[in-house]
């Protein structure tokens, strides 16, 4: 099976996107190509083909959505996403998608919303394992007291994404 990838250059740097047969599987924030490939090799064990976005409908749609995001602070709906994680992680990721642009929630609030009160640390772990940042907006989740908490792309990128959304 072939997986398709493309490179997108945003105002915040270079990002890799990986698409499988059912949708977008991964988006890098700051990883090098080697780090990105190693992180997703198990989920995409076939051949990886560099693809021009305009030649692949999922990659094309995803990159257009990212371009719109960096212009408006809103991710357009409709990009097909492929979730690959534990049932708990998928539940968290779906809950994150319901946090509106320009808003935030705490790890504890997400834990309560998905029916696992007291699982704030587990929610943080699921956020850290999120393969589709921006599309699954883990940057909108804050630690208690409104602190930024962690973020795979670094706290400066988390802060930049939150400011981008609030500025619009």
Mean pLDDT: 94
Number of helices: 6
Low-confidence stretches: none
What Rg do the Cα atoms give?
Answer: 15 Å
3D structure, described in words:
This protein has 168 residues and is α/β, with parallel strands linked by helices. The chain folds into two domains: 71 residues, Double Stranded RNA Binding Domain, CATH 3.30.160.70; 81 residues, Winged helix-like DNA-binding domain superfamily/Winged helix DNA-binding domain (Arc Repressor Mutant, subunit A). The protein has six helices and six strands, in the order βββαβααβααβα. Strands 3-2-1-4 form a four-stranded mixed beta sheet, sandwiched between helices. A two-stranded parallel ribbon has the order 5-6. α3 crosses α5 and α4 packs across α5. The model has no long low-confidence stretch (mean pLDDT 94).
For the structure shown, list the relevant keywords.
Arc Repressor Mutant, subunit A; 38% helix; globular; 6 helices; 2 domains; two-stranded parallel sheet; alpha/beta; 168 residues; 4-stranded mixed β-sheet; Double Stranded RNA Binding Domain; 6 strands
Describe the structure in brief.
38% of the residues lie in helices and 18% in strands.
Can you lay out the helices and strands and say which pair or pack?
Blueprint (H helix, E strand, L loop, with lengths): L1 E9 L2 E8 L2 E5 L5 H8 L6 E4 L6 H16 L14 H10 L8 E2 H7 L6 H9 L12 E2 L12 H13 L1
Parallel strand pairs: 1-4, 5-6
Antiparallel strand pairs: 1-2, 2-3
